[in-house]
Amino acid sequence: MDGLDHESLPEDVKINAGEDTIAKKGKSKQDLLAWGISMLFIIAWLGGMWAWGEAKGWNAQSGYYYENVNNTQQRFLPEPFGCNDTTTPGRAEGECTATWYFWQLPPDEVSSLTQAIVWLFYCAHQIFVWALIYRAQLVMTFRKKGIPKYQTKLRWFNWSLLIVNAIFHVLHLIQTHWTYDATAQDVAISSSQASVIMMICFILLMEYKDRGVIMMWPNPKSDDKFAKYLRLNLAPIELIRKYHGIAFSWAVTYTFWYHPMENTWGHTTGFFHTAIVLLQGSLIYTDMHLNRYWRLLNEVWVFAHGTVVAFQTSDPVAAGGSSAWPIFTFGFGFVLAFTQVYSLPFWKKISPYFRIIPVLTYLTIVLILCGTVVQGKEPGQTGFGRLYEMFFIPGEEYMMLFASWFFIYVFIQIESAIYGGKPVPVHNEASATKQAFYIGFVVLIYALFIFGSYLARNLTYSLIGMMIIFVFIFSFGVCITVLFFKQLMGPFRKMAHGCSGATLGPKTDENANTAGAVNVSYIGEAM
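Below the sequence we write its predicted structure tokens.
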């Protein structure tokens, strides 16, 4: 047997971890079929968004066209150019043009009903997805020996997640044309952006074990002197790989309900991103969930979305120096070329010298654009004067990669000190009271995220600065929740025995997988 006391488990866990879920890998390709059908659904859903909007005469691509589109004038307030509108909170002083969200109802059209409906839908969507992910992890944690963790056949929780997400996608479209407003009326735009960037930062951390930070360095086979000292302890990484589902589902569901389903290209690319990440979450514990090419698309789509939004919302009359698109295009492009592209399997099969190709291609494109398209911020300044902007986004993402790792590492060391360096007992299953206690704290942390976003809704300070602050707060809070889930669900298998005194930067792969009383089987339990 596997050493677990199945008799004390909840009935549905015993059943679904037993014979009813036994499905060997091989014949069925349900995950691939479900993925294909879901992608067609997403395309049809976005097509419906455009068709319904066009049928109603909606044409609000940007606040800069406000005076030229009668329909837009009837629906929204104009962009707060000059930041001197004191009649409505959030439209005066500071960077109010950047922090004001254009696609929301005027204050005199907002009612308790319009606000309550969208929050009710958001909360219901979030709770359903969280509950299913939590139950899925519980089922797979206590699965019987011999049952594969990943397979091509869908389990009950996969079907449930696919159906729930499909229903709420349709409901959001209906709600937009019923009450229109999304949660943007009540929370800061920087918090929505920060939730997605927080997710991307954690993906960088999760993928660190295989692709390192820059051009696949340092990776497990890096044997140079610096790599041996800088290689991060893998215990925090394995924890976030195991328990990232709740955090990622919050990031995309929160963003999904932040925006109304307006028929613009920015909204289209944004909703496509939230939809594919929710689809990825619906395919947990399937082979498709591990597909490197699909995972890379989920990770890097923000590059396309950020570029489209920056172009769409920039002033078409003003000089190019006022446009923010180089920050997003060059910034997300930097991370793609220097880090993310190396997720693809073929990089491990070819000479390391080929890794310079994406970097050189990226730098060449940036230099050409700076010399031709990009304009300087000041008169007489060339586009090359804005090269430094390419470091804004990658600087934040790499900083949070290491900060998040450090947060979890410190928490693990504190836990190790509390237990005196002894391994956590295998058979300590969480009681209903303990589960309620920890889950309550997890929900409280995410509720505090939203409450903080509510308090900051009318602040007009630097959009980038506020976004960085929110990313830091969200990342720190998620790290705490990860340790809560560790107390609830694992590790239960192959416990480490007294691995105290782990180094901050392990010198060998042997001690790279442990920190304090850490489960070395995180490697096998990852993702």
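The longest helix spans residues 112-141.
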